[in-house]
Design a protein that fits this description.
It is built from 14 helices and seven strands. With 257 residues, it is α/β, with parallel strands linked by helices.
């Protein structure tokens, strides 16, 4: 089985977020490696310290793609002068509705919560396809290094990362490894964890705040049902025809040694 570079190799420790990591180093199309220092994925950036910002500046990160919804951005907004922001809104509608249900005394089992997350991923595939088409357009229109994120950097960000890695020819099992790294790296803010624990059972919170293979698998099932294959989805739904795909690979892959 192909193996991914270790989490410690790609994780960049920052004070203000926990899930910031480089997508470089993976083996892609025709054995070429993803370039280090070009594309990063993360949880939200509102709590970055001055030292964190200096570190991002040293890395050359100049753009931030934010997949969060309006309320998330209002609660944890940021305006760092060194980062050009691109808001690609995907509202966490199903999860928000579930949280509201629990807060007023409703009930969700673990199985219900897993099903909710699977429905969320199906929505990412179908309803949010235009957003991810814009995501690829941003990757192609500017060579400056970027970071893309949502709130925890796990679901919307996880699917965006999976799509990019598929487009660059990374093996599916390695894509799954990258996706699951969130469970090693993401640390919930203490205040948020304490607030959520007042209304939500710990076993349900565990599902909501982690990633599972079943979530990503549900996205692939939706792709297969509607488009037949991930290649067709990239081409037909996201606008990555042969020319755009070649351009993307030329930009983010380096020739095999």
């Amino acid at each position: 089985m192909p193996t991914a570079p270790a989490a410690a190799q790609r994780h960049i420790p920052l004070h203000g977020c926990s899930n910031f990591r480089d997508l470089g180093g993976y083996s892609g199309h025709q054995g070429q490696r993803l370039r280090w220092g070009q594309v990063y994925r993360s949880d939200h950036l509102a709590d970055l310290s001055a030292g964190d910002l200096a570190q991002l500046d040293a890395l050359g990160v100049a753009r931030a793609v934010d997949f969060r919804g309006a309320q998330e951005r209002a609660q944890h907004g940021y305006d760092w002068p060194q980062l050009q922001q691109h808001s690609l809104v995907i509202e966490p509608t199903l999860v928000h509705e579930a949280m509201q249900l629990l807060k007023v005394g409703g009930h969700l089992s673990v199985a219900d919560t897993v099903a909710l997350m699977q429905a969320t991923y199906r929505g990412l595939v179908v309803e949010s396809a235009p957003v991810f088409a814009r995501w690829f357009a941003l990757l192609l229109e500017d060579e400056r290094p970027l970071v893309f994120h949502c709130t925890a950097g796990k679901d919307r960000t996880g699917w965006a990362a999976a799509l990019l890695l598929h487009a660059l020819g990374v093996a599916p099992e390695v894509i799954a490894q990258d996706y699951l790294l969130t469970n090693q790296l993401y640390r919930r803010p203490a205040a948020l964890a304490a607030q959520a624990a007042q209304h939500i059972p710990p076993e349900v919170l565990h599902v909501l705040w982690t990633v599972q293979p079943a979530f990503l698998d549900s996205a692939y099932v939706a792709v297969a049902q509607h488009w037949g294959s991930i290649h067709a989805y990239l081409h037909e739904a996201l606008g990555l025809g042969p020319s755009a795909l070649a351009q993307l690979r030329g930009r983010y892959l380096q020739p095999a040694a």
